[in-house]
């Protein structure tokens, strides 16, 4: 068991590990916008229209492909949109029309899109959609945050000189590759766990979980509890060690649960531990 003091260890937790590309993935934004650039430029002809309904009808008849751009104007990724009011319920398809053109005009009117175009509130749909894509991309920050921590840990694994390691490996693959019985961890094979990293050393296989929490939430208590269980169950398996690398000020809201796990878990580390060369000391 480690002889570290939780409060000292926790005081080193970082508020953020965000790099410059964390905030917006502009390459993806531009790629998404570029894919409908022609259609958006055709729809631009409706901006400031004095007879928006008839112009829209003529445009859709002549260029039916422009229909596929409509959902993104409402910040919707799907090509089907459900809408209902006193007149009924509709599920509009924007791949191919499944209602009359009149009904699609109703959709444009009731969603406010005709208003947006007709009143010249925007000047260019390409610019507008680029902005919409930036907004939607911010939802991807959570995934990018997880990736940032994984990439950071991988950097230290490489720096340590360890060459036999694997990213995102399922428990069943670990069992097969090194002939280990991990039923104590997998609830007798019922749960298919995936480790962020697996490191193979001459006398030990290490399953590693990584995460970074900049914000709190109920999920953190659950994470701490489940990893505490995982650590305890791992002790029953010869030749296997569970390692948890976590960090982030978000843990402040779940500090007590994290401390409970810290108290029973030998191999729990933070970014400061990585900086201090813990990988070389542990994975021998």
Structural overview:
By secondary structure, this protein is of the alpha/beta class. It folds into 2 domains: 6-20 and 140-282, Trna Endonuclease, Chain: A, domain 1, CATH 3.40.1350; 26-139, no CATH class. It is built from 14 helices and 7 strands. The strands form 2 sheets. A 5-stranded mixed beta sheet has the order 3-4-5-6-7. A two-stranded antiparallel sheet has the order 1-2. Strand 5 (204-212), helix 11 and strand 6 (240-247) form a beta-alpha-beta unit. Helix 2 crosses helix 8 (125-137) and helix 11 runs parallel beside helix 12 (255-264). The model has no long low-confidence stretch (mean pLDDT 92).
Spatial strand order of the main sheet: 3-4-5-6-7
Mean pLDDT: 92
- The total number of structural domains is 2
Q: What is the level 1 CATH name of the largest domain?
A: Alpha Beta
End-to-end distance, in Å? 17 Å
Give the number of DSSP strands.
Answer: 7
**What sequence of helices (H) and strands (E) makes up the elements?**
HHHHHEEHHHHEHEEHEHEHH
Low-pLDDT regions: none
What is the number of helices? Answer: 14
**Radius of gyration over all CA atoms, rounded:** 26 Å
Largest sheet, in brief, is: 5 strands, mixed
CATH architecture of the largest domain: 3-Layer(aba) Sandwich
Which descriptors apply to this entry?
single chain, 284 residues, 5-stranded mixed sheet, two-stranded antiparallel sheet, 14 helices, 45% helix, 16% strand, elongated
């Amino acid at each position: 068991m480690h002889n570290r003091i939780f409060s000292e260890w926790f005081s080193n937790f970082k508020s953020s590990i965000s790099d410059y590309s964390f905030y917006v993935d502009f390459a993806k934004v531009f790629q998404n916008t570029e894919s409908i650039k022609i259609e958006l430029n055709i729809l631009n002809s409706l901006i400031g229209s004095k007879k928006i309904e008839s112009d829209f009808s003529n445009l859709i008849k002549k260029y039916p492909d422009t229909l596929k751009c409509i959902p993104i104007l409402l910040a919707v990724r799907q090509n089907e949109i459900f809408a209902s009011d006193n007149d009924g319920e509709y599920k509009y398809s924007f791949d191919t029309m499944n209602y009359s053109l009149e009904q699609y005009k109703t959709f444009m009117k009731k969603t406010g899109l005709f208003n947006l175009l007709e009143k010249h509130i925007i000047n260019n749909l390409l610019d507008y959609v680029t902005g919409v894509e930036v907004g939607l991309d911010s939802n991807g920050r959570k995934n990018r945050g997880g990736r940032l921590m994984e990439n950071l840990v991988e950097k230290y694994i490489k720096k340590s000189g360890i060459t036999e390691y694997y990213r995102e490996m399922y428990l069943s693959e670990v069992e097969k590759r090194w002939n280990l019985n991990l039923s104590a961890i997998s609830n007798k094979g019922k749960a298919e766990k995936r480790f962020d990293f697996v490191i193979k050393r001459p006398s030990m296989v290490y399953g590693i979980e990584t995460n970074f929490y900049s914000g709190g939430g109920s999920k953190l208590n659950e994470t701490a509890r489940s990893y505490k269980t995982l650590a305890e169950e791992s002790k029953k398996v010869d030749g296997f060690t569970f390692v948890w690398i976590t960090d982030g000020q978000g843990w402040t809201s779940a500090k007590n649960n994290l401390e409970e796990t810290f108290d029973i878990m030998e191999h729990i580390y933070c970014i400061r531990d990585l900086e201090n060369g813990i990988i070389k000391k542990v994975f021998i």
